């Protein structure tokens, strides 16, 4: 079981390969409410969160990142690439969460700008998909604000940790759409006021 070696940095944040040792700093930022729209149960302790990261590292096609403040190294949350299929030129972004203090401002759009840039400009993928629980209107709005196009609803597609069954909303960004999406994100980031809550995180977008 080995971690990937991708590190992305810009707009005040750094995405570094997730490691079980991040659990002590990351887990206190989580909670059952934050995790309620994920498809996996909330890891209810530091050790459980470390095990969660270990499972991510063992999953083929999944690249887990810890999101940090680029200057201080303070953990803000986590995000992933997953279902990366190089031969088909596609990948998804999700399993994203941020501590409540960081659910706003530049953290989420900056992370998405870095991830999308890597996907389209380094990996050269044709499409990036994002998904969310259909009940999570906040996530759906946040994904659309990135510039992603709604693709449809998969009915009864996910089971939440509480056992409830829900639909999944799918969105995508295509390679020829990326320049406009990138410009939009860069404009938002350059105009964002410190502490503004204009950019809500799409927490639990997988």
UniProtKB/TrEMBL annotation:
EC number: 2.-.-.-
Name of the protein this chain belongs to: GNAT family protein
Entry keyword annotation includes Membrane: no
A molecular function GO annotation: transferase activity
Protein keywords: Transferase
All copies of domain N-acetyltransferase, residue ranges: 14-149
InterPro entries registered for this protein in UniProt: Acyl_CoA_acyltransferase (IPR016181), GNAT_dom (IPR000182)
Chain segments annotated as transmembrane: none
A family per Pfam: Acetyltransf_3
Domain of life the protein comes from: Bacteria
